[in-house]
Amino acid sequence: MAEQLPHGGTMVSYGDYKKHPCLLTGEKLVYNKFVEERWTEKNRESPEHTQMMEDLCKLGEEGKLRPPSCHDYPLAQYKTALSRAMEPFIASKQLIRMDQ
Fold first, then answer.
1. I want to staple 5 with a disulfide (CB 3.0 to 4.6 A). Which of 9, 41, 77, 91 is the partner?
2. In terms of Cα–Cα distance, which of 8, 3, 7, 52 is closest to 29?
3. Full-prediction pTM beyond 0.70?
4. d(CA 30, CA 26)
């Protein structure tokens, strides 16, 4: 479905709310990142961009915008980390530490 979107189109998926996977190819994610960066460049001085940044900062200050949890593993436990990362519906990041 994402491939049928016109320039500037929006795709909304409710699959994640029902714990169903929402599959997008890496190509689409990279393309969407490119579009987001292009929008930011074009609209950096716009009131909408300023408001968006203010809203994001406010959410961060209120503690409502936080990074996902992260579990780190020493290199010796890389198999555990990879296994955990491949489990479905895991919201936390898996970090393999090379210095431990």
1. 9
2. 3
3. no
4. 6
Neighbours of 81 (CB within 10 A): 19
Residue 95: which of 76, 75, 69, 73 has the closest Cα? 73
Q: Report in angstroms the alpha-carbon separations of 59 from 21, 43, 52, 54, 65.
A: 27, 21, 11, 9, 5
Sequential DSSP letters for 35-73: HHHHHHHHHTTSHHHHHHHHHHHHHHHTT-S-PPPEEEE
Question: Which residue reads 């929006």 in tokens?
Answer: 10
